[in-house]
Design goal:
29% of the residues lie in helices and 23% in strands. It is of the alpha/beta class and 430 residues long. It comes from Novosphingobium beihaiensis.
Length: 430
């Protein structure tokens, strides 16, 4: 059954209500632009990487890069005000760190999101965005969604902001094991960790931050782990001061106006800030773990760099991986009680969101204000957040630019809404 949720089109419908659209909601409220906006989130409540809130895990960016401070340090939605509201301001100062625990930052985000409960519908999985043609023009779209009970609804909108986060990247070797209880992507690690509680040996595929954290978590639980990756070693994240300037808000403008090939080169040059890298303190802890194995003559954990998983299959209650050594081409068949894929994410909008809009869009490359170029017959604005690395730089899928990007999109929405209203005003005057 399908029912309408809005009789009149909203100025904006946001798809996803993670940090990106939360920052946008705050920016729009603080701008006081009077636009009607509603957000649809597939999770039953607000959560930010809930399955990676491991004991001891900390943020990798300064707490000042919260939802608002880089845009408006005096905002009541700042992390500092969150600490004040919860009576922990002085205690946090005494921790002498710029990097709060991941659990605390998640709590901060939940606190901020709680101010917008009336503007967000949780448990809504968006199925499609469809144009509504009116005398040869598209003045608004229909956003279809389905709740956890199978009830379908739709919202009418003059603009849509898509911010659905990354989609788990699963290597081809594991495609045939989709949904298998013993194959777990890091995005579901804690929810599925009980399946690994009695495991004797687990493979962790990947050499990035998530792989390192999961390895140490399993080590602490007494599980034997094979840490496997194509890379030659665990590499430290480059967080040096000059390199970190690529996450400054004004760098986005610089990056956007570079030629295509130069942008690609810049992403490659600075990939060590974000991709397949690990905080140095974790690298040292993992190295010491393997060193102590040598001291104790204990081969419980195995480190397998330069190994590629060619195939994976379930057999007799275990998982069998065919590993190829990239140095000599040899094969090694290993059996595990479980596999954790710390293989990252793809940051692309769902095709279901944009397929129906194809006749209305000139390109899938967003403009500087994150809006997709539309045909002359389409008045609707489709904006992207978190999937514009190729055009806006490495920081696009990270927290660093949230406040600046939110302000830019809020300004664009205000301008677009004024243009959308102009024809109606002219007709009324006639």
């Amino acid at each position: 059954m399908t029912s309408s949720q809005t009789a009149e089109p909203l100025d904006c419908v946001g798809i996803g209500f993670g940090p990106s659209n939360l920052a946008l909601a705050i920016a729009m409220q603080e701008a006081g632009n009077g636009l009607s906006c509603h957000f649809l989130e597939r999770h039953p409540d607000f959560v930010w990487h809930g399955d990676m809130l491991l004991d001891g895990s900390r943020m990798q960016i300064c707490f000042l890069k919260d939802l608002v401070s880089m845009r408006k340090p005096t905002s009541p939605f700042s992390f500092l005000n969150y600490l004040h509201e919860h009576g922990r301001f002085e205690d946090f100062i005494n921790t002498r760190t710029f990097y709060p625990s991941r659990r605390e930052f998640n709590d901060y985000l939940r606190w901020a999101a709680g101010h917008f409960d009336a503007q967000c519908s949780y448990g809504q999985e968006v199925l499609a965005i469809e144009p509504e043609w009116d005398h040869g023009r598209v003045r608004h779209v229909r956003v279809h969604a389905r709740d956890q009970h199978g009830q379908e609804r739709y919202w009418l909108a003059r603009n849509v902001v898509i911010a659905t986060g990354g989609q788990p990247c699963v290597p081809d070797a594991f495609a045939g094991l989709n949904g298998h209880a013993q194959v777990i992507h890091s995005s579901r690690y804690l929810s599925a960790a009980d399946r690994l509680g009695k495991a004797e040996r687990v493979a962790v595929v990947g050499f990035g931050q998530s792989a390192a954290e999961i390895f140490l978590d399993l080590h602490g639980k007494g599980v034997a782990v094979d840490l496997i990756a194509r890379a030659s070693t665990l590499r430290p994240a480059d967080s040096s001061s000059f390199v970190n300037e690529i996450f400054n808000a004004d760098y986005t403008d610089y990056f956007f106006h570079r030629p295509l090939e130069e942008r690609r080169q810049l992403v490659g040059d600075f990939s060590s800030t974000n991709y397949s890298v690990v905080d140095n303190d974790l690298i040292e802890e993992i190295f010491d773990t393997f060193y102590q194995q040598k001291v104790m003559k204990d081969e419980r954990h195995r480190l397998s760099p330069r190994h590629e998983v060619l195939a994976a299959r379930a057999q007799d209650g275990q998982l069998q991986l065919d590993l190829r050594n990239l140095d000599d081409g040899s094969h090694d068949m290993r059996r595990f009680d479980g596999v954790v894929l710390a293989t990252g994410y793809r940051h692309t909008p769902s095709a279901a969101f944009l397929d129906a809009m194809a006749p209305c869009l000139e390109s899938l490359a967003p403009a500087r204000d994150y809006r997709l170029p539309a045909t002359p017959l389409c008045d609707v604005g489709i904006y992207l957040q978190g999937c514009c690395e190729a055009t806006h730089g490495l920081s696009d899928s990270l927290l660093s630019v949230l406040p600046a990007r939110a302000e830019e999109i809020a300004v664009s929405l205000r301008q677009t809404s004024a243009e959308q209203a102009a024809p109606a005003v002219a007709c009324a005057a006639e």
